[in-house]
Design brief:
five-stranded parallel β-sheet, GMP Synthetase, Chain A, domain 3, Rossmann fold, Helicase, Ruva Protein, domain 3, Trp_repressor/repl_initiator, Chromosome_initiator_DnaA_CS, four-stranded mixed β-sheet, DNA-binding, 20 helices, alpha/beta, about 50% helix, lipid-binding
């Protein structure tokens, strides 16, 4: 059982975001029961969160290891009746276990659970060095990202005039790579001068705050972030939209960090001016430093990215194949790298050389560049998928199917057209804040790989099919 859960966790670590994995999967322990997978959470809150949002992802990963999709049960530690295979060092179960009175013995073996990492103890910043997978050595610099690259290194070396940096780009263009490279570089300095770095996503910050409130450890949460952090690296700040309670805490945290002269770095898929739904004071503080925008890479830069990755894979990439991939996948570096990785793997499995024909065979699974997609194309496609008329799509109806269809159209328009958020909103008689909210909601499902997220992936992939 220990091997099954260990292998399942390895798969989950590759498919989930680092924040989700470290926050919700690591604290779990596991045991077998009648062919099912029983997970033990430190407390009821973690059990409910995992049960509602991650059970499908866990079942799919476990199916790869076990050969069949198991039923997944999630219980809190106080409900467990026997020892389990812990995912980390064994510690006493979560608060709420009956205390043993003098002379009294509790019946049955004491359940054991993995330690809960939330909220973070005040003595340690909420970041792990091994979360920084990317480095500057792997980052390919070109006209589209050279400003963000220089500014990020300036923050690391404290040579930039500002102590804050906001990095904005469409998904898949290198925001996460840069911010992780920053964390790695800062932590790789002289040990005596090494600052305390906190790296997490906006959603993880929110989840930690909620957990602190539920466990009545808000003061420890505040101390961990306000007093024991020198560098805050915060991803996807657009997640804070329309969350006033969490925005208040973040604002106070940033004020405390600014007062101490700490370095702050934020990333978002949107420009600061597009972040409606944020408190004006919070938006002003987030936007008070240096703004760096990463644009789509040009053809030459995409070729250099492929050459760098081919060297990492230790393969010879013919020039005609490099040109083909760079030409057909122009807008998303992540997809470009994924395509190359699959091409290399297929060549190894077939024991053959990388060729144009083999590249075309792999490319058919990707959203390759074709004729430009117009807004009319998007409206027609979305109406066909969701069985709506254009008038229904643009109507004021709040029916779930209509809202989902509109949000899908917003996301596709963002990906396939050069229209601004405001212009996209005009097409559907909506404000740009509604467009941001809709895109953010779908991006969350896509990143969490929820059932809706997987359905959306298929819908997006078939757009050009």
């Amino acid at each position: 059982m220990e091997t099954i859960w260990s292998q399942t966790k390895q798969l989950l670590e590759k498919t989930l975001s680092p924040g989700l994995f470290n926050l919700w999967i690591k604290p779990l322990a596991a045991r077998a029961r009648d062919g099912a997978l029983e997970l033990v959470a430190p407390n009821a809150f973690v059990a409910a969160w995992v049960r509602e949002r991650l059970s499908d992802s866990i079942a799919e990963a476990a199916a790869v290891v076990m050969g069949a999709r198991p039923q997944v049960f999630v219980v809190e530690a106080t409900q467990a009746a026997a020892p389990v295979a812990a995912s980390a060092a064994q510690t006493p179960a979560a608060p709420g276990r009956p205390r043993r009175q003098p002379g009294q013995r509790l019946a049955g073996p004491r359940p054991v659970a993995a330690p809960l990492t939330l909220p973070v103890a005040p003595s340690a910043p909420p970041a792990l060095v091994d979360r920084f997978r990317f480095s500057y050595d792997e980052f390919v610099v070109g006209p589209s990202n050279e400003m963000a690259y220089a500014a990020s290194k300036g923050i690391c070396d404290m040579s930039l005039s500002a102590e804050q940096l906001f990095i904005s780009s469409a998904p898949g263009l290198g925001k996460t790579h840069l911010i992780q490279a920053m964390g790695r570089r800062i932590l790789g300095g002289e040990p005596r001068r090494q600052p305390r770095v906190a790296y997490l996503s906006a959603e993880e910050f929110a989840n930690r705050l909620v957990m602190a409130i539920k466990t009545k450890q808000v003061e420890q949460f505040k101390a961990a972030f306000r007093e024991n952090v020198d560098v805050l690296l915060l991803e996807d700040v657009h997640f804070f939209r329309d969350k006033p309670r969490i925005q208040d805490e973040l604002l106070n945290t940033l004020k405390a960090l600014n007062a101490r002269g700490c370095r702050l770095v934020f990333t978002s898929s949107f420009l600061p001016k597009e972040l409606s739904g944020l408190d004006s004071q919070l938006l002003s503080r987030i936007n008070s430093g240096f703004l760096a925008v990463i644009d789509k890479p040009d053809l030459d830069m995409r070729r250099r990215i492929l050459a760098r990755k081919a060297a990492v894979h230790q393969v010879l990439l013919p020039e005609e194949v490099s040109t083909l991939l760079a030409d057909k996948l122009p807008s998303d570096v992540r997809q470009l790298e994924s395509c190359l990785q699959n091409l290399v793997l297929k060549a190894k499995l077939l024991n053959c050389r990388i060729s144009v024909d083999l590249a075309w065979d792999v490319l058919r699974h990707y959203d390759v560049a074709q004729a430009p997609v117009s807004m009319d194309d998007i409206v027609s496609y979305v109406c066909d998928v969701y069985r709506l008329s254009p008038d229904q799509l643009k109507s004021k109806s709040r029916k779930r199917q209509y809202v989902l269809a509109r949000n899908t159209a917003f996301l596709l328009a963002r990906q396939h057209t050069d229209l601004s958020l405001a212009d996209i909103g005009v097409q559907f008689n909506r404000r740009h804040s509604t467009v941001v909210k809709g895109i953010t909601a779908l991006e969350r499902h896509l990143s969490l790989k929820t059932p809706l997220g997987r359905e959306l992936e298929r819908t997006i992939e078939q757009m050009r099919g």
